[in-house]
Specification:
alpha+beta, four-stranded antiparallel beta sheet, about 140 residues
């Protein structure tokens, strides 16, 4: 069993390395740490008032000013034409220096905890994805 798991893990790692190489994906620019991205998707309750949804969006964007660990922040509505969004309508992306910045200077901060309390009454589902950013080198051949 351990050998199968190791073989599967090794195969997945090799596939990822081949994919990254074949698509000219590189690490962060030399000397710069790779940014840590925190992507959050919200599916609001069907009866959530539009005013409350707007308040949530404004409050989420306001965390950047309250929490210096947030290096950048952007948000928008899901406008995908594919129709496979499972009801998630709002997308938010915050960038941090690293995972420790997110864990120690964002998630545990009172401003973030207050934000979580604000959204609970109007949120049906939340999806969170964190990743370390890779960059595509368009100049590589």
């Amino acid at each position: 069993m351990k050998r199968i798991l190791f073989t599967s893990t090794l195969a997945a790692a090799l596939a990822a390395a081949i994919f990254m190489t074949s698509n000219n994906v590189t690490a962060a620019p030399e000397g710069a740490p790779a940014p840590y991205r925190h992507v959050v998707l919200f599916k609001f309750k069907a009866d959530a008032p539009k005013e409350k949804v707007a308040e949530v969006v404004k409050a989420f964007a306001g965390l950047k000013e309250k929490l210096p660990a947030v290096l950048s922040f952007e948000h928008g509505l899901n406008v995908s034409p594919e129709g496979i969004n499972d009801g998630f309508t709002h997308v938010f992306t915050a960038t941090f220096k690293d995972k420790a910045s997110l864990e120690n200077h964002y998630l545990k901060e009172p401003a973030h905890e207050e934000f979580v309390k604000l959204i609970k009454p109007v949120i049906e589902k939340v999806l969170v994805v964190d990743y370390v950013a890779n960059f595509v080198d368009h100049g590589a051949h």
